[in-house]
Design a protein that fits this description.
Chain lengths: ~110, ~120
């Protein structure tokens, strides 16, 4: 099973700041990595699929990069609605796996 | 617009069985693989099971293999999961989710979930 490790677990930032979230895989997942945002009481929402493709409705301030084992989600300038938990997920191998999540909180 | 509506959750004793359902609308159900993903209270996301667009391929997480069966009825636009021999650790909110497209097993639409609580 591919283990995805997200860091940092919590990121404390102010609106307008840049957020950089990391996801590291225990073995290569090629570019088959997605990012989701989840707010309290809501289902997850797909932001980025296959490393760098924004899903429908994802604002341009969200960007994804990486390949192999190291991936990054960048939020260029945090808006109030971006404070949430973010998960990465790989589809290179079965079973599909998620990272443990990273919380972006208001400083 | 895409809608996924789960049902069938509830409180069940350890060792019991449940059948979860997901009603799909707003897209061509027969064209997409579908998944169940769960989230234990206060915890992260765990993928549970997948079924291909035609039911011809299925995959399961080790944690549920042999106890859960995913199925679909394309004539009714419905996804199911039969869960048997339920354990305390199966307590979670169960989401159904849709593939982005064929063989792209990332989830671009989710339901609101149905809560399964395993407790004596």
């Amino acid at each position: 099973e591919i283990v995805l490790t997200q860091s940092p677990a919590t990121l404390s930032l102010s609106p307008g700041e840049r957020a950089t979230l990391s996801c590291r895989a225990s073995q290569s997942v090629s570019n088959y990595l997605a990012w989701y945002q989840q707010k309290p009481g809501q289902a997850p929402r797909l932001l980025i699929y296959d490393t760098s493709n924004r899903a429908a409705g994802t604002p341009a301030r969200f960007s994804g990069s990486g390949s192999g084992t190291d991936f990054t989600l960048i939020i260029s300038s945090l808006e109030p609605e971006d404070f949430a938990v973010y998960y990465c997920q790989q589809r290179n191998n079965w079973p599909l796996t998620f990272g443990g999540g990273a919380r972006v909180e208001i400083k | 617009q895409v809608q996924l509506v789960e049902s069938g959750g509830g409180v069940i004793q350890p060792g019991g069985s449940l059948r979860l359902s997901c009603a799909a609308s707003g897209f061509t159900f027969t064209n997409y693989g579908m998944h169940w993903v769960r989230q234990a209270p206060g915890k992260g996301l765990e993928w549970v099971a997948f079924i291909a667009y035609d039911g011809g391929e299925k995959n399961y997480a080790d944690s549920v293999k042999g106890r859960c069966t995913i199925s679909r009825d394309n004539s009714r636009n419905r996804l199911y999961m039969e869960m048997n021999n339920l354990r305390d650790e199966d307590t979670a909110l169960y989401y159904c989710a849709k593939d982005v497209r064929w063989k792209v097993h990332e989830f671009d639409s989710w339901g609101h979930g149905t809560l399964v609580t395993v407790s004596s």
